[in-house]
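Let's practice the habit of predicting before peeking. Look at the sequence and jot down your guess about where helices and strands might fall. Then scroll down.
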Amino acid sequence: MSKYHFDDNGRLIQVDISPDESIKYVYDQNGNLTFKSYGEPSYPLSSAYGDQQGKDNWFYQIWNGTNYENMTWDPVLYRWEGKNSWDLITKDWMHPDGNDAVLKWVAPQTGSIRIAGIVSKHLTNLQGDGVRVKIMKNQSQIWPASGWKTIEGNDATGFDLNLNVNVVTGDSIYFILNQNGNNGYDATRWNPSISYIKKASSAFGPEQGRNNWYYQIWNGTSYENMTWDPNLSGWRGKNSWDLITNRWMHPDGNDAVLKWVAPQMGSIRISGTVAKHPTNLQGDGIRVKIMKNTTQIWPASGWQSIEGNDAAGVANHLNLNVATGDAIYFILNQNGNNGYDATRWDPAITYVEKASSAYGAEQGRNNWYYQIWNGTSYESMKWNPVLSRWEGKNSWDLITKDWMHPDGNDTVLKWVAPQTGTIRIAGTAAKHPVNLQGDGVRIRIMQNSTQIWPASGWQSIQGTDSIGIAIHLNNIKVTAGDSIYFILNQNGNMGYDATAWDPSILYQ
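Done guessing? Here is the structure:
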């Protein structure tokens, strides 16, 4: 389901059409739409602000020197208030008062993020002894390197932030405002925005390794880093046309290579289209392939050829498991000669942790399976391509992207551990809003043949319960090949038993 974001004037500024893509709308000073762009979803504080802690993953807090505490909403003054009179966060400014004022954002998924935004004194408070600011990721400081950044009392310009950070689901980013000496005239503007960086083009810049992307050549024996050319605003290899820019890449004797390094163990999805650039639709074409470390993963062997006049190209959608530090190489070869070999290739990489993100017509995609338990054994369901759902033996043995339903048999989501390690299981199980009646359902979670939640028996969910049960299991040790079963039982009868359960699993 799409998610819509509006500005203070009620104008649509962003539509999240999937976990991987958003449409962003930009207006001129007269309110006229000037353009729209497609990119990764972002989390701007400006569109999240309101009377809810946690909306769009933003929270409003104070730091009392020992711990963080949530502020309280004032519906009359439309602001968040802490324990002291001037512990305040409004839509336009924040203010400390003995306690630090804190904006907190919690990562909804694993990946690489960019933190942007300007922090400066508010125009109405350009005096006083200034303020101090810093940003933390959990308990580690990420900006500045240590200590505080001081903003002078009359500094309306402040600092323009552009930070790139890796996060896992549940990580907290804290934007902390300290009063410096006293709290006089300390109103400060800070409107951070956080975006997930999934496409190579979004990470592109003059740094090797930014958001885990690197720019290289393959000389037939080894990979070598390219060198940044500020005049080209791109990367150059050893030969004249060994090039990677934000829009295209080009081989020249050496292969041109985009490399991505996994910051976290898990399951990923690779997507994108590789095609000849519109300005280079001639020549003898090019060849491409994708490697994981030293193993080829696409195509199955050899090369994927793209003809010299092929502007449509080839789309690839791959699901695979990675360990921390694994390298994915997107390799472009000139085929015969290097004439007219400019090629567009903007791969996107996304961690897949939720069952819904892996959902599709394949058993085992991103390690998820769709089954029934018949009281004796597990059996795989069958895919119905017309209704886009998994079906068991009985009419209402069903699993869809949004809900699951038992019918005599239990319905089961199964996840198989791709690697040995420690995992965290999270998610909420609740009756689906269209089925809020009946005698309820029962659920439990098994690891192989051992029950891990609840401690014994079943967790009941009443027929009218649309809030359900939040599950948080930490430090579950798994061995490669272990199975985690999320089991839904009909309780008494199977009437109105549609249940929303979208568990996520993350290696810790």
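How did you do? The helical segments are 45-48, 200-203, 355-358.
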